[in-house]
Input
Amino acid sequence: MRKQILCFTIGMLSSFYVSASSEKDEILNGIQNTSKVSSAVFESAQSINDINEGLLSLEVYLSSNSKDDAQSVISSLKAPTLNQHISSDGSSFYVVTTLKGLLEISRNELTRTIKSGTGTGFSTNTINAYVPTTSLPSEDYKGKGVKIAVLDSGINKTHPQIQGKIVEEYCFQSINPNNITLSQAIALEKKFGKDYGACANGLKFQQGKDAAVDDHGHGTHVTGIIAASKSSDPNAAPEGDASQAEIISFKVLNSKNSYEHQDLVNALNLLATDPNLQDIKVINLSLGASLNLPGTCDKYVTGDLPDVIKKLTSQGKIIIAASGNEGLTGGEGLPSCLDNTISVAAHSTHPSPDFKLIVNCGHESLSENEIICFSNVSKTTDIAAPGHNIISLNHLSNDTTIMSGTSQATPAVTACVARMLEKNPTLSPADVKIYLQHGGNYIKKAVDSDAYVPKMDCDATLDLVPAMTKK
Output
């Protein structure tokens, strides 16, 4: 079964640039000639496709023990750098930079040796409560200790693969007056009061047990992609990439897989203002309004939604939103087109030679690792993740179902972000976006050769993130 939901998003996409192989070869030769670079670093350098975008995590050892010397090397770099940190004795520094940055560092007379900095160093958002620690293998990070708000159609919390993961439930479900008669509205108000709605308690708002019962299936499927437990049952859904994360389920989508705009705003406002919800780090929005807006739409959109999303981001919360399934190239919808979200397009994971028979949106067939034609993309779409024939949890039983869409790609990114935050809780929304975009290669939409988007490679992204722990 294939499911889609209207979704829209925006993000800051790094510009795409294909360097000539001769320029890359020249840089690699220059690095090798300095004899300062370890074999591990040089091997990583050889694997980089784009000399202006691919990142390397480096530990640079100097010929002196001077913080001033270390700072002078860093300050001399023309190439972009991230997460610079100088050791306490000044003998080395950690930095993330491009291939060109590695060449500059290797040519500096103060540089003695350059080793891989994977798993070491400090975040750009480091605070005193955290110190660097030894990193684990990327597969060992499963989102432990990270709380995720999933705003969707709710959850089948009795499913054995999600039991114990749902720590709180909320419902925001008003009733569209166009969908009921006057007599029905009068009867509802008489029974439930002026705040009548479609939540299980008959009101617009509900909190607590069974507030987010899923009567559609979309939310259960999305949540399973994030946090489903591993199962030995051969018919079970795959383990969620953030299977140790904690989920707060918000029911904003109704049984028809649609929502009222104000319900979404109210749910986000609660996340921004409720003191009991301030430890939520990630918000998953596999939803949106079907609008053809530019990739950066902040100046076109008024009202409460942009303001509350901006407020949440200022609090350090990371908002992941689906780009939508209208097949747009050069446009998205709302809220994904807002600058404070990370927008997600959907890509294929395996060839589908008869794709046109399933979805007629421009592909005769579907190749491996290309942006699917139904996926909205713009110049500012942030990341692409798997969104074709995704197996996850069923809301009506203990088995599985298959859905496709940017709604399914979005929780894959959310799970990756949870893993990143487990490894380094100090990461800011800007840090997260940069690491996501530099973990993998660019892929494109076959029906538009100019639609390039970075493809998520979560394990590679995790290798870039320096490990941090509480003191």
